[in-house]
Amino acid sequence: MESLGIDIKLLIAQLINFSIFFFIVKKFIAKPFTSFLKSEKDKDEDKNRLLDKLKKSEETAVINEKKMREKVKKELDVIFSQSKKEAQEMRAELIKQAEKDALEIRDKNNKLLSEEKDALYREVKNKIVETSLMIVEKALKESLDEASRKQVTNYIIKNYQGKQKAYEN
Amino acid sequence: MKINPKLKNDLKRFLMDKIQEERSIVSVYSANLLSNEDKKNLANKFKELDWKKARFEIDKSVIAGVIIKIGSRTIDLSLLGSLSKLTNTLYEID
pTM value? Predict the structure, then answer.
């Protein structure tokens, strides 16, 4: 061995040194470092998982928002169309009522006009009758002389047939 | 003041008789004095009336003919009455 240049004692001492070094490194450096790496890896995984979850929930939220918007839009459309329909119905009803009122007013005015016309007609007729009879009365009074009056009186009494009814005062 | 019941009854009877008498009195209104023939004709036409106490009065507004009044009753045979009837008829026509 010596001819090969290998010192057994040195080899053993190096082996022991290496073993001690290996033991110390493994015990105090490699293990905590490995656990640190592992914990970092776990944290990264957690982070990624959380991110994925957040992303998913964000996507879900976006979809939900979209759905909600569509739903709201649909509801708004329904409300709008319903309101439009109600407004049209109300308008139609108002127009109908206004037409009815207008007809009533027209009928009332026509009736009033007719009544006024009748009243005027009656008044004119009465005036004509009054005036005509006044003229006749005056003409009779002026045209009948004493003899004529006597003749008329005589004629009336002679020709009385008993049809005249007596009236109470 | 108390009124004697006998006096009250007498007064009442007197007034009733007066009213009865007034009711039966015939008044004839005409534009001119009626001739005897007219009066006779009237008496013949209205035999139910008491012509003994009849009063004949002149009313120019009658125009012609006569108006006979017996109490509250009136028989109108005058031209004025005819005109009045004609007026009423004309008023009633539409």
Answer: 0.54
